[in-house]
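Entry 14. Structure prediction run on the chain below.
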Amino acid sequence: MNRRSSTAITPGKWTQAGLCVVRHQPGQAAPSTEPSSRAPLWLALYLARLPLEAASAPAGHPATVIFEQHGQAHRVTVANDAASRAGIKPPMALAAARALAPHLRALPRDQASEQKALKKWAAEAMRWTPRVSVVEDGLLMEITGSLRLYGGLRQLISLVRDWIEAETACFQIALTPTPASAILCARAGQELYVTNRRQLASHLHDLS
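Output returned:
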């Protein structure tokens, strides 16, 4: 998962089928490869710590979680690093989390603030493409028509990355030829860039 840092993406290999895969590796140049067709390309941004950031949870607090009501129990939605190191992880019951970290700070999830932040970022992302959608925990952008305007895939991804790094401390990016697969890869922590639909299935299989 990405945090505020200097990051880039490096090119993978082109297969005979024309698949371009690039993976994130800090400190190296972004890829020069471009998609081989004008098929739609979807860029998903998954914001894993959005509930913590929307609740204004202090970054330096020893252990903090966001919780929600599930049936008769409060359950952890997301935990910060300190809470995770204590063994707390979603969807653990809040009572069990407190047993692991007696001084745990627990904040109720503020979905209204999350949606406000997502809508703000969606409006800003329209500088690159008018086709921006808010999903439950991130953004989805159809970027094919913007590639030439912004100098190609490498340059556009770098611009989006620089922007989102300035907005949030934790994010994941994935690009694929379909919207659902882009969201799936990003949520799974697979920072994968696939520009050819024919090879998409093999990469999705790796997530199962």
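The two ends are 19 Å apart (CA to CA).
Filed with the rest of this week's runs.
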